[in-house]
């Protein structure tokens, strides 16, 4: 099963993306921790809005064993960088959370866009 959600680069799109992903997780009976998925979706969509450029989309794919979520944006030169979390900073923990909670994650660049993705396995 696959789905694509357009992202307009507006802060309200973070909540919209979460709701859309949540609805698909339920409809597809995805057997992974939904709270973890929604947290990681929030982080990737937020990063795309803050550091990326339109056009952007969120892609989901569930094959019955692995959920893959990708956020694509139109700025291949703005690669995400994982930094050590700073307890005093208001942000900067997104990729650290993705690294800790996802089974796999990465960045694919194919000009004129990039894709930041994560995977979670069922069970």
How would you describe this protein?
- The structure is a single chain.
- This protein is an alpha+beta fold.
- It is 35% helix and 30% strand.
- The protein has one domain (2-121): Histidine kinase-like ATPase, C-terminal domain (Heat Shock Protein 90, 2-Layer Sandwich), CATH 3.30.565.
- The protein is built from three helices and five strands.
- α1 (12-28) packs antiparallel against α2 and α2 runs antiparallel to α3.
- It is globular.
- The mean pLDDT is 91.
Considering the chains and any ligands shown, give keywords for the structure:
123 residues; five-stranded antiparallel β-sheet; Heat Shock Protein 90; alpha+beta
Measure the end-to-end span: 18 Å
Give the count of helical stretches: 3
In total, the number of strands is: 5
Uncertain runs with pLDDT below 50, 5 residues or more?
none
Q: Short description, anyone?
A:
By secondary structure, this protein is α+β, with helices and mostly antiparallel strands. The protein has helices at residues 12-28, 34-51, 94-101, and strands spanning 2-7, 56-62, 66-73, 104-110, 113-121. The protein has three helices and five strands.
């Amino acid at each position: 099963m696959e789905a694509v959600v357009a992202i307009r680069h507006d802060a309200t799109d973070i909540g919209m993306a979460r709701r859309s992903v949540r609805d698909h997780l339920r409809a597809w009976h995805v057997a992974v921790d939904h709270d973890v998925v929604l947290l990681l979706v929030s982080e990737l969509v937020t990063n795309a809005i803050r550091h990326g450029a339109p056009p952007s989309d969120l892609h989901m794919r569930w094959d019955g064993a692995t959920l893959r979520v990708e956020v694509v944006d139109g700025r291949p030169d703005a690669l995400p960088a994982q930094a050590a979390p700073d307890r005093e900073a208001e942000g900067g923990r997104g990729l650290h959370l993705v690294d800790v909670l996802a089974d796999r994650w990465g960045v694919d660049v194919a000009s004129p866009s990039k894709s930041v993705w994560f995977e979670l396995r069922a069970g």
